[in-house]
């Protein structure tokens, strides 16, 4: 188990476009495991590789209440979106802040798993929001630039950060 340092807003790496993964080698598997450990340790529901300083198109997500249903996406691409949801969003790279963002309410995403086998995941609600947020990270985009009315300080004890 290895916890990696989470890069924070202002760090140049968060604004760069990540590169496609060509093959899953030992190094990438270590990265994926470390990303999962780092996300769970930080009580996040999603983490993208650039958030730990690695410019590769890798995302981990777990929106389950128990935190025992990890989803690993390599080279994820949004195929379809539908509807709209407007709600609060946070990010492990923007600690203590939250902002309101409008996202699709449904997304269909194509990605590759650790065996480089293609799969499709469909999500609504929080999962859809999380998929969009994390894929934005791979393109160097932060939610802070998409808020309806800027950032607020987190006041609740528990806030989901993705
Ligand atoms: Ni984030």
Number of domains as seen in the coordinates: 1
Instruction: Please work out how many helical segments DSSP would assign.
Output: 2
Question: Could you tell me which ligands this complex binds, including any ions or cofactors?
Answer: nickel (II) ion
Strand tally, please?
A: 8
Please outline the major beta sheet.
Answer: 5 strands, antiparallel
Strand order of the largest sheet: 1-2-3-6-7
Share in helix: 10-25%
Using only C-alpha atoms, the radius of gyration works out to: 15 Å
Here the CATH topology equals: Peptide Deformylase
Q: Which second-level CATH architecture applies? A: Alpha-Beta Complex
**Average predicted confidence as pLDDT:** 95
Describe the model.
The protein is an alpha+beta fold and 162 residues long. The protein has one domain (12-153): Alpha-Beta Complex (Peptide Deformylase). It has 2 helices and 8 strands, in the order αβββββββαβ. The strands form 2 sheets. The chain has a 5-stranded antiparallel beta sheet with strand order 1-2-3-6-7. It has a 3-stranded antiparallel beta sheet with strand order 4-5-8. Strand 6 (106-112) and strand 7 (118-124) form a beta hairpin. It is globular and about 40 Å long. The relative contact order is 0.21. The mean pLDDT is 95. It binds nickel (II) ion.
């Amino acid at each position: 188990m290895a916890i990696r340092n989470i890069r924070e807003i202002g760090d140049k790496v968060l604004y760069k476009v990540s590169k496609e993964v060509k093959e899953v080698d030992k190094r990438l598997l270590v990265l994926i495991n470390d990303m999962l450990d780092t996300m769970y340790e930080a009580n996040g529901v999603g983490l993208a590789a650039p958030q730990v300083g690695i410019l590769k198109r890798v995302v981990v997500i777990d929106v389950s209440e128990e935190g025992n249903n990890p989803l690993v996406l390599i080279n994820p691409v949004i195929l379809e979106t539908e509807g709209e949801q407007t709600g609060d969003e946070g990010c492990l790279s923007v600690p203590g802040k939250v902002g309101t963002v409008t996202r699709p309410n449904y997304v269909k995403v194509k990605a590759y798993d650790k065996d480089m086998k293609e799969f499709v995941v469909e999500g609504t609600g929080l999962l859809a929001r999380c998929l969009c947020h994390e894929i934005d990270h791979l393109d160097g985009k932060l939610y802070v630039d998409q808020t309806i009315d800027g950032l607020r300080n987190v006041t609740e004890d528990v806030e989901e950060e993705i």
